[in-house]
Amino acid sequence: MIDAVAGWLGPAEWQAVRLSLRVGLVATLASLPLGILTAYALARWRFPGRQLLNGIVHLPLILPPVVTGYLLLIAFGRRGSLGPLLESLGIVLSFRWTGAALAAAVMAFPLMVRAIRLSIEAVDPRLEAAAATLGASPPWVFLTVTLPLMLPGIIAGTILAFAKAIGEFGATITFVSNIPGETQTMPSAIYAALQVPGGEVAAGRLVVVAVVLAMAALLLSELIARRAARRVGGA
Amino acid sequence: MSLQVGLSHRFGGFALDVAFDAPAGLTVLFGPSGSGKTTVVNAVAGLLRADRARIAVDGRLLDDSASGLHLPPHRRRVGYVFQEGRLFPHLSVRRNLLFGRWFAPRGAAGPDLDRVVEMLDIGPLLARRPGALSGGERSRVAIGRALLAAPRLILADEPLAALDAARKAEILPYFERLRDHAAVPILYVSHAVPEVARLATTVVALRAGRVAAVGPPAAVLGDAAVAGGDTASVLAARVEAHEGDGLTRLRTAGGAVLVAGIDAPPGAALRLRVAARDVILSRARPEGLSALTILSGSIAAITPDDGPTVQVVLAMGDDRLTARITRRSLAQLDLAPGQPCHAIVKSVAVAPGDLGRGAQPGP
């Protein structure tokens, strides 16, 4: 089936789809631990600057994506403030697919954190207290009670973030441009195809793929969340 | 095998100051809602850090504020049976039961799974999840889970309160077995006289954050001041004036109280008894009511009853006024501890028969 899709799409478009999937996967998995930590901190900890952190996390949701992309360029570009430092460590982000993954991760982060945070807030702290009286130290309470109970939210947040990441356009094209084979993700490829006379057919095929992927992600997250809720609900 | 507790703690206008020893057997912490029972148990479990505490099980200190010792809950080895069970919804009954076993030190003396399962008759439930259990089944699993953690002390916070009468009768015998066979002391919170009479080897009666009486159940339950019927509040009052229309104005910490004329000179100290069911709460100071007595204070505690009602305790100076209202009213008024609140005391409730000579020295 994958071969059939690849054949129907043509090599350049198939490359864009694969790149988008890779960027989405790396962006989501790499940001997941930080997403859980941030959501936990926002939901449970009271510390100075909590509202500021909340604001920064949500900023990419509100800012024009081109602004987020430009800020990433300033920070992580070749001549950016952190770029040279990272480059000396062998990490180059600008105009590379890794930069696309960073842009996608930043843009998808608020969605991930929101979903996970909601699930943490739904965990009954009295169950955690019960686990403590049974001898579980705080890390064990987190691993054996909190984490399993927030799993539906983690899964929903991850899938949502993945769907957002494979479709990210504005910040990506601003930060890492639109280089076929390196940073030309699916949305960039659609955009590029539409700039060329007669490119509507190629764009249309990619649009179909984008719609199918987004729908699949939504349905999957619904399905998994419902299953997990049933498991946790105990019936 | 014994538990020593000495605690003092202040929160939201409520002061708790208790000291008692719980010998082997089952000690019931007995008292009306809002008397501080759950606070004591939570402090023993380590879930609450009291302002000052000295708590020891078999001579091993769990809390000693003099030396700054406060063991975290997971290092106390207490088996806590919660009122709502608090079973882990994502684990099967078997894994719930064995949860504490996993964290208990190797070789800890505790009952094995088979024995506990047999004692509590929960064999057929092992593969199920808590969501599929009835209230009574859940209670039994909660008892088993606490036992299997090989605790040095068992705590039970009104474990029957959420159950109907039939389920209560079903669970009581298990606590009797526990009392007679468990080698560790049990501290059991209750406000129900029948439970106390049936289970207790020792009763510690609490009232408004203090120990009112300690002793065997017969002695403590016979004390009407401790066991007395419906919840009521006692307010300190002083005669202010005799009004022209035959009423007497009394002064309390929460405001003026008007009662039918009484034969006492201005300045005399009195106590008023107000039944909790005769108090109406209002967030705004009400107007246009026929009731004459409107006191004001702030909410110190809200504790649920068995049924559809809750008891709301108002702090007025050093006095506490308890009102029994429905859960629905509580939700509609959106009451929460710390809020200012007005109490309309139906004047008929403050009858002369409820007045007794107070012994407090005047201000």
Q: Strand-and-helix sequence of chain B, N→C?
A: EEEHEEEEHHHEHEHEEHHEEEEEEEEHEE
Distance between the termini of chain B: 46 Å
Provide the β-strand percentage band of chain A: under 5%
Number of helical regions of chain A: 11
What is the CATH architecture assignment of chain A? Answer: Orthogonal Bundle
Going by helix content, strand content and strand pairing, the class of chain A is mainly alpha
What is the fold-level CATH name, i.e. the topology of the largest domain in chain B?
Rossmann fold
The helical percent of chain A reads over 70%
CATH superfamily of chain A: MetI-like
Number of strands of chain B: 21
Nearest-angstrom radius of gyration of chain B? 23 Å
User: Under CATH, the topology of chain A is which?
Assistant: MetI-like fold
Map the helices and strands.
The complex is a heterodimer of chains A (235) and B (363).
Chain A: H1 2-9, H2 11-44, H3 50-62, H4 65-76, H5 83-88, H6 97-121, H7 125-133, H8 138-166, H9 170-176, H10 186-195, H11 200-233
Chain B: E1 3-11, E2 14-22, E3 26-30, H1 37-45, E4 52-57, E5 60-64, E6 69-70, E7 78-81, H2 93-103, H3 113-120, H4 135-148, E8 153-157, H5 165-181, E9 186-190, H6 193-199, E10 202-207, E11 210-215, H7 217-221, H8 224-227, E12 232-242, E13 247-252, E14 255-260, E15 269-275, E16 279-282, E17 293-304, E18 309-316, E19 319-326, H9 327-333, E20 340-345, E21 356-357
Parallel strand pairs in B: 3-9, 3-10, 7-8, 8-9
Antiparallel strand pairs in B: 1-2, 1-4, 4-5, 5-6, 10-11, 12-13, 12-15, 13-14, 15-21, 16-20, 17-18, 17-20, 18-19
Helix pairs in contact in B: 2-4, 3-4, 4-5
